[in-house]
């Protein structure tokens, strides 16, 4: 406000410096801020001595202003007034006109202009009036704020017509009838504008602003001019309001507009002065402040953070709404006593001592404490941080701080600590520990459980050398190569088992290391994190199982060999038959790409596929002539007998079934069950082909060995009908390549 007053004083001092009128300007405290040269001559004193005095020293004696002084009326209603008074200081009767000056942005009265003329000198008054008019025109043109001169007589006539029609609420009527508002805008006649108005509303020149003036009101939002129009009918001579306009250049601007009818024109309103002050920046600052306050309030609510201030002199606390909510004090704006704050704590003595140390000794105040809100029976944990504000001489004047409800955070921290303890215990039970390897720095961290597995302590060096230094020398090169290939080159998760040597006791242990990778946005490897499990016991168990399985395998093979020898001892003509069948069957399966486990199962089945012949009399097995139907029926029963012998033995699940099916044919012509295509196991299909080829190309009691060509013809003729097409083709390829059945090679 001081800046505005100084600018007004300087303006009017320059304006009145050459004026011969009896005129002066004073502020609302009745102190003179500007005096005309004519007034100074009449009083016989320099202008500088008159500025700063009261108006009584210029116009009246020590008794003060008379009752008919127009200043009294102006201060009551803010309007222009004039009256005749007797001036003791000038010794004559004067006609004094007092005009309000509202130059600050809020439109409040800030100064009053006094102009006096002698009532006995009409001619001089008329001359002075003309001079005043000229100077006013100069002031109008060069005023620092936008000013307009309007003829609103047509608007007043239209409003009078509306009132005559019984419309009492003129302002509400104009707001609800846009067409009537537009009509009144069109009835306004702008007589003149000053330079500041041309600049403010971005017109090219005076003529453009006069021609397009109505656009400013038509495009205005948050309109206010209707208030002045409504005031015409109620006798208001001046109305101030804010309005959001759009300049001719399209820029939005807020203006504080004051519309004042010139004295003597109150009846017609044919001469009205309008002053516009640009308050766009102020409105933007107000919006920003409101937005900032709203955001800050949201931050307080969302973060459960409150602010507070303690005035040391009054010993009173101001607390933000969120602070009061935390303390259970509601959202009142009343200040609080120090005792009210202290008693909210579960331990008020400790809180008071910490606060005293902050104020008196400057001790840091950054701590958590328990409170019991007034509106709750459940204690809460809050964290408060505060600092002391001091005067220039170092005297503490206030304490400002923030307070945050950290109850849930403390609970979560406690729960996290408990879960971490449970996880550590679980890791120890499961022999698992976690780690994180920084791939850029080459350092790593490990959990206590992992330290126990690795046999290291806090002094162990956690770098790459320390990481790879734990690995058993026999496993080091392979593990390091796997790390470079899997992690650094292919960027794949780490999954490998290897041995370590514990530094604590030199013990060898097997561990299983798992790790996942984390990369930056640009694809750079950052870290690998995962778990390491002690699998020494599992490895030991696996080795024992492997040895047990090996022993079982040797036992089974011995059993199979004994069974084969038993059959061969009863049928010397088929000696080595099962081993040769196994040899050919394995070659066919290998040609088809079968795995090792499948081939082992097929081999076992082939070595015992004729075990069922143990139930057939040896006379029938070695009979040189044709068999009778009953004898052939006994021969055909050997697959079922073999199944009954083999099923209880601990072979793989398919061995007995493969043996049972080795005389089945795809067209259903086989035995013992007459199975067809889709029902016969793949291993049984291979075994059937190998059995036929071996039987045809070796001696039998009832015939000599047949040429290999006849065996090839038999298989070729039955492809897809009796024999499996793929297995048969593989067999034929082997035979064409010169595959030969060899007893020694067939031995297992």
Description of the structure:
It is a single chain. The protein is an alpha+beta fold and 748 residues long. It has five domains: 2-142, 2-Layer Sandwich (Beta-Lactamase); 146-285, 2-Layer Sandwich (Beta-Lactamase), CATH 3.30.450; 306-405, 2-Layer Sandwich (Beta-Lactamase), CATH 3.30.450.20; 431-534, Beta-Lactamase (2-Layer Sandwich), CATH 3.30.450.20; 563-746, Hypothetical protein af1432 (Orthogonal Bundle), CATH 1.10.3210. Strands 13-12-11-16-15-14 form a six-stranded antiparallel sheet, with helices on both faces. A hairpin with a 5-residue loop joins strand 20 (508-519) and strand 21 (525-534). The longest helix is centred in the C-terminal third of the chain and has 35 residues, at 536-570. It is elongated, with a radius of gyration of 56 Å. Residues 744-748 have low confidence and may be disordered.
Give a short summary of the structure.
The chain is an alpha+beta fold. It is built from 32 helices and 21 strands.
């Amino acid at each position: 406000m001081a800046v505005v007053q100084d600018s007004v004083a300087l303006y009017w001092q320059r304006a009145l410096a050459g004026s011969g009128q009896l005129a002066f300007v004073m502020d609302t405290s009745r102190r003179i801020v500007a005096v005309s040269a004519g007034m100074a001559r009449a009083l016989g004193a320099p202008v500088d001595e008159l500025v700063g005095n009261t108006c009584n020293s210029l116009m009246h004696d020590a008794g003060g202003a008379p009752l008919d002084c127009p200043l009294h009326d102006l201060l009551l209603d803010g309007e222009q007034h004039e009256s005749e008074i007797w001036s003791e200081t000038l010794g004559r009767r004067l006609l004094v006109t007092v005009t309000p000056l509202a130059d600050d942005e809020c439109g409040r009265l800030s100064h009053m202009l006094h102009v006096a003329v002698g009532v006995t000198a009409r001619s001089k008054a008329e001359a002075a009036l003309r001079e005043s008019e000229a100077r006013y025109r100069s002031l109008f043109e060069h005023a620092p704020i936008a000013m307009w001169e309007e003829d609103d007589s047509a608007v007043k006539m239209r409003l009078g017509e509306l009132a005559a029609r019984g419309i009492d609420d003129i302002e509400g009527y104009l707001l609800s009838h846009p067409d009537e508002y537009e009509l009144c805008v069109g009835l306004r006649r702008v007589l003149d504008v000053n330079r500041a108005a041309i600049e403010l509303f971005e017109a090219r020149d005076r003529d453009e602003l006069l021609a397009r003036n109505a656009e400013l009101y038509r495009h205005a939002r948050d309109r206010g001019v209707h208030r002045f129009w409504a005031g015409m009918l109620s006798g208001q001579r001046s109305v101030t309001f804010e309005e959001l306009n759009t300049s001719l250049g399209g820029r939005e601007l807020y203006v504080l507009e004051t519309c004042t009818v010139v004295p003597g024109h109150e009846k017609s309103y044919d001469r009205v002065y309008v002053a516009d002050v640009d308050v766009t920046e102020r409105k933007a600052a107000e919006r920003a402040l409101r937005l900032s306050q709203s955001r800050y309030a949201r931050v307080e609510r969302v973060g459960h953070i409150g602010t507070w201030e303690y005035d040391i002199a009054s010993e009173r606390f101001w607390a933000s709404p969120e602070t009061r909510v935390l303390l259970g004090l509601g959202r009142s704006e009343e200040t609080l006593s120090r005792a009210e704050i202290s008693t909210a704590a579960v331990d008020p003595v400790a809180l008071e001592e910490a606060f005293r140390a902050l104020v008196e000794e400057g001790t840091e105040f950054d701590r958590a404490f328990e409170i019991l809100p007034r509106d709750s029976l459940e204690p809460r944990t809050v964290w408060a941080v505060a600092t002391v504000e001091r005067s220039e001489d170092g005297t503490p004047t206030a304490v400002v701080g923030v307070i945050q409800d950290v109850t849930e955070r403390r609970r979560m921290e406690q729960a996290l600590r408990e879960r971490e303890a449970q996880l550590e215990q679980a890791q120890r039970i499961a022999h698992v520990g976690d780690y994180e390897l920084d791939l850029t720095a080459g350092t790593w961290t490990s959990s206590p459980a992992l330290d126990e597995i690795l046999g290291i302590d806090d002094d162990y060096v956690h770098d790459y050398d320390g990481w790879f230094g734990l690995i058993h020398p026999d496993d080091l090169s392979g593990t390091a190569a796997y790390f470079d290939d899997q992690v650094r080159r292919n960027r794949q998760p780490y999954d490998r088992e290897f041995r370590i040597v514990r530094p604590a006791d030199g013990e060898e242990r097997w561990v299983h290391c798992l790790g996942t990778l984390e990369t930056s946005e640009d694809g750079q490897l950052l870290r690998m994190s995962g778990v390491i499990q002690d699998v020494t016991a599992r490895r030991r168990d696996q080795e024992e199982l492997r040895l047990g399985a090996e022993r079982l395998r040797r036992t089974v093979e011995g059993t199979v060999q004994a069974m084969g020898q038993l059959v061969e001892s009863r049928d010397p003509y088929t000696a080595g038959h099962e081993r040769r069948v196994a040899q050919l069957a394995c070659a066919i399966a290998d040609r088809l790409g079968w795995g090792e486990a499948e081939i082992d199962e097929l081999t076992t089945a082939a070595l015992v596929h004729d075990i069922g012949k143990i139930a057939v009399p040896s006379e029938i097995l070695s009979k040189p002539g044709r068999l009778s139907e009953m004898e052939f029926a006994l021969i055909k029963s050997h697959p079922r007998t073999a199944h009954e012998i083999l099923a209880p033995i601990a072979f793989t699940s398919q061995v007995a079934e493969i043996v049972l099916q080795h005389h089945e044919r795809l067209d259903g012509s086989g035995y013992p069950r007459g199975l067809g295509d889709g029902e016969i196991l793949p291993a049984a299909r291979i075994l059937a082909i190998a059995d036929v080829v071996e039987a045809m190309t070796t001696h039998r009691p009832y015939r000599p060995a047949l040429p290999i060509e006849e065996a090839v013809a038999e298989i070729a003729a039955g492809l897809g009908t009796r024999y499996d097409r793929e297995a048969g083709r593989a067999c034929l390829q082997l035979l064409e390549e010169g595959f030969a059945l060899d007893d020694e090679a067939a031995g297992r």
